[in-house]
Specification:
Layout (H helix, E strand, L loop, with lengths): L8 E4 L4 H12 L4 E5 L2 H17 L7 E5 H7 L2 E4 L6 H8 L7 E4 L20 H9 L4 E4 L6 H5 L7 E6 L2 H13 L3 E4 L6 H18 L12
Parallel strand pairs: 1-2, 1-4, 2-3, 4-5, 5-6, 7-8
Antiparallel strand pairs: 6-7
Helix pairs in contact: 1-2, 4-5
């Protein structure tokens, strides 16, 4: 754990739309954010832009730093993986040795362009299952955020979406749910990592809905206060 009372967050693939949105929300919530990229110079530039945007929103003391993916994964107390599915396995392999003993939040959805509006789950079951198998039992993989639009995360507004959180360790899921709540959303325990397949598949359904209705629809659970 970093000297800050809140865990630092490493975001692997943090220069993409989803990674940037998560970085903004987490930095606003008071976490030191380490933005990772395959190209560290791009991460440094993205971190500067994020810090400037946060300053414009009245948050001048945000901690956002750019570096390569391996450094972000190694330095963060909690690690987010926000890469396209095509880069998922090689990225996990490249950081496996630095994330042992940590919580890794896998945000990846197994979309296969150009047919991203069609559910195409991998033979292993889900991206979350791939991550848990590849990283090993000493890593607590938690799958989340597949159904929240990057546009919502980046916008300076309340997010009208809930987040399904799956993973084999309930304590790790709760830590991620606490992060979600600090970012202004509701998170819910949704079972073991096997259930990540449901949230990942739902993304393609939402893509269809968003195309049809020209919006950024998300998931909202009812009947829970």
């Amino acid at each position: 754990m970093s000297s800050n009372t809140k865990p630092s967050i490493g975001i692997v693939g943090g220069t993409g739309d989803l990674g940037r949105g998560l970085a903004l929300r987490l930095a606003k919530a008071g976490h030191a954010v380490l933005v990772g990229s395959r190209k560290p110079e791009q991460a440094v530039e993205a971190a500067r832009a994020l810090a400037a945007e946060l300053s414009e929103r009245g948050i001048s003391d945000a901690s956002v730093e750019g570096m390569d993916n391996e450094a972000a994964a190694g330095s963060g107390d909690i690690v987010f993986v926000t890469v396209p599915f095509g880069a998922h396995t090689p990225t996990l392999e490249s950081i496996r040795h630095v994330v042992q003993g940590k919580i890794v939040v896998d945000v990846t959805v197994p979309l296969v362009p150009p047919r991203v509006a069609r559910v195409q789950l991998p033979p292993e079951g889900s991206a979350g299952m791939i991550a848990q198998t590849l990283l090993g039992d000493d890593v607590q993989v938690v799958s989340a955020f597949q159904n929240v639009a990057a546009a919502h995360l980046q916008a300076d507004m309340e997010i009208p979406c809930d987040v399904l959180v799956t993973g084999n360790e309930k304590t790790a899921r709760q830590i991620v749910i606490d992060l979600i709540e600090s970012m202004g959303m509701r998170g819910f325990h949704a079972g073991l990592i096997h259930n990540a397949a449901a949230a990942e598949a739902l993304t393609s359904v939402l893509i269809n809905i968003n195309k049809q209705y020209k919006t950024h629809a998300g998931l909202r659970l009812t009947g829970i206060d």
